[in-house]
Amino acid sequence: MTMEREIVESIRRLRDKMVKIDIIDVVILRCLSEGADRYTELEVCVENYGITLRNALANRLLKLRERGYVMRNDRELYVLTDDGRELLKIVRALAAP
């Protein structure tokens, strides 16, 4: 299967699931993929993108965990799940020039 075909199929699967993803969720996923795995590191990373969330970050992380995109291994240690990595890959493909 070609890369383009894979992307199209991934987008169709995403559409079929009717996944609602917000730009802030994408920023959080991106921060996780860049190595920010503690809550405080995520807070700083998200703020570096110009977004101040304060208490909303906890709510966003909870929603991402409920949807299966993020997992919490320790008290403050967050990691991307396979679904989260797949979603980020799809979003990056859609945003590519």
Structure, explained:
By secondary structure, the protein is mainly α. The protein has a single domain (3-95), classed as Arc Repressor Mutant, subunit A, CATH 1.10.10. It has helices spanning 3-17, 23-33, 39-48, 56-66, 82-95, and strands at residues 70-72, 78-80. It has a two-stranded antiparallel ribbon. A hairpin with a 5-residue loop joins strand 1 and strand 2 (78-80). Helix 2 (23-33) crosses helix 5 (82-95). The longest helix has 15 residues, at 3-17. It is elongated. The protein starts with a helix and ends with a helix.
**Major β-sheet annotation:** 2 strands, antiparallel
Morphology call: elongated
What would CATH call the homologous superfamily?
Winged helix-like DNA-binding domain superfamily/Winged helix DNA-binding domain
CATH topology title: Arc Repressor Mutant, subunit A
Radius of gyration: 14 Å
Number of strands: 2
Write down the overall mean pLDDT. 83
Helix content: 55-70%
Number of helices: 5
List the helices and strands and how they pair.
Elements: H1 3-17, H2 23-33, H3 39-48, H4 56-66, E1 70-72, E2 78-80, H5 82-95
Antiparallel strand pairs: 1-2
